[in-house]
From TrEMBL:
Keyword RNA-binding in record: no
InterPro entries to which the protein is assigned, alphabetical: Ccc1_fam (IPR008217)
Superkingdom assignment: Eukaryota
Biological role: Vacuolar Fe(2+) uptake transporter.
Membrane topology (UniProt): Multi-pass membrane protein
Protein name: Vacuolar iron transporter
Membrane among keywords: yes
Chain ranges passing through the membrane: 113-134, 140-162, 174-192
Family indicated by similarity: Belongs to the CCC1 family.
Organism: Leersia perrieri
Reaction(s) catalysed by this chain's protein: Fe(2+)(in) = Fe(2+)(out)
Biological process terms in GO annotation: intracellular manganese ion homeostasis
């Protein structure tokens, strides 16, 4: 009976730790996928504002996917290495280096791979949407529509997996941010084209 009470007493802490761990990888995954989607869709729309050819949009989007995935991987690796160094130094000061706590530290390689993968998944969405459409106006509309649906879905999934009650607000926030990025990029590139530079 005492054992059951002890397990029950530990449960809230375990649940809280589980939610914290979930929050960490969830933040990285949603951020990476969202960043891949928004930056690649915006890049493709920006190029599309100046050049109507499908090839130009697709090539720029693919280049954005590769560059962004590499950037995310390197950035996450460096960030997690720095965090790990700080935590190892603290463990050494506390005399706990080499213990169980050291094994629970985040892995830079895993974080790097996960970040690059999440970015690539997000970036692939507008690329696949626009890759097979010849008509210029339809291609632009499809990129915006598909990106919008995916942004709303990312916001919803992030809220649900994080057990947030604000699912609609989360989706709206992600969607509005994505629309702003795409609109600014397309609009400024249109001005660039109109200026004849």
């Amino acid at each position: 009976m005492a054992n059951n009470k002890q397990v029950d007493a530990e449960n809230p802490a375990e649940v809280a730790e589980d939610l914290t761990q979930r929050g960490n990888w969830l933040r990285a995954a949603v951020l990476g996928a969202n960043d891949g989607l928004v930056s690649t869709a915006s890049l493709m729309l920006g190029v599309g504002a100046v050049k109507a050819e499908a090839r130009a949009m697709v090539v720029s989007g693919f280049a954005g996917l590769l560059a962004g995935a590499c950037s995310m991987a390197i950035g996450e690796f460096v960030s997690v290495c720095s965090q790990r160094d700080v935590e190892l130094a603290q463990l050494e000061r506390d005399g706990k280096l080499g213990g169980e706590e050291e094994r629970s530290l985040p892995s830079p390689a895993q974080a790097s791979a996960a970040s690059a993968m999440a970015f690539s998944v997000g970036a692939a969405v507008p690329l696949l949407a626009a890759g097979f459409i010849v008509n210029y106006r339809l291609r632009i509309a499809v990129v915006v529509a598909v990106a919008s649906v995916a942004l709303a879905a990312f916001g919803c999934v992030g809220a649900v997996l994080g057990r947030s009650p604000a699912v609609v607000r989360s989706s709206a926030r992600v969607l509005l941010g994505g629309w702003a990025a795409m609109a600014v990029t397309f609009g400024l590139m249109r001005l660039f084209k109109a200026s004849g530079i």
